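User: I'm putting together notes for a lab meeting next week and I want to include a structural view of one of the chains we've been expressing. I don't have a solved structure, so I'd like a prediction I can at least talk through. The sequence is below, exactly as it appears in our construct file.
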Amino acid sequence: MTEDGDVDDELLTIGAFAARTRLSAKALRLYDRLGLLSPARVDGPTGYRYYRADQAERARLVALLRQLDMPLARIAEVVGAEGAEAADRLAAYWAGVEARVAGQRTLAEYLRGRLSGRSSEMYDKFVIETVDVPARVVLSESRHTLADELPTWIGASLGRLEAAARECGGVTGAPFVVYHREVSMESDGPAESCVPVADEAAARSWAGRQGHTWRTRVRTEPAVRLAYTRITKAQVAHPQILAAFEAVEQWIAGEGLEVAGPCREVYFADWDAATAEDPVCDVAFPVR
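Assistant: Thanks for the context. Below is the predicted structure for the 288-residue chain, given as structure tokens.
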């Protein structure tokens, strides 16, 4: 008996199975190591692998999914599902790929503008203004997070804080997120979600009951002058929002002002109800 021929009517050697699936024996051994396609039987003394003929379809499917650069864990989910469920899992993965590629395409266009010296053209579309904001008490929640997790965390944290604010005299101003350090795919901040509240004593009592569950605290946000630009829901997406931040920074330098604190995003509109072209957010820097 060799590793290149049929063993019996039911089991195929790895060579025969490789020929049937048009895959190499090396690829089949890799799929075995990765837990994606295990042989039906492995001969103890020789270590020869034997496969059932009905495993050929799974082998071909694994090979095709790997051509999509699908992570191994996702491949296991797809091949482990059946029918419509398997198709839905593939569709969900590919929708994520297309969203990522669309974001990368936009980032590439943005970087082309910077590298070609057209940055000023990108900044011209942003109108910069200043506003004086009085001191206020805020409920806040901080977290170290990377850029891909940031939108989900912002929505969840502001939701928690706004719900808590109803027990603290109500919300007295637009929620905002402060970036104490850069948040990107390499840098994790931290970011701080903030909701202004009316009753400081009630806020401190509420925060005390939470312990460290959500890293919630109460603090006084000092009075500040903000230089800001107003952007639409579509412009909040990365990397469009980078151009907004840079436009404000350029304006600050041109006006002879200094940045006096960490940058922030102020959310003044109903995000879920807004369309892509509706203004939803102010990108701002404290200045002096």
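A couple of points you could mention at the meeting. Residues 267 and 281 are 5 Å apart (CA to CA). The chain has a mean pLDDT of 88.

User: Perfect, that's what I needed.
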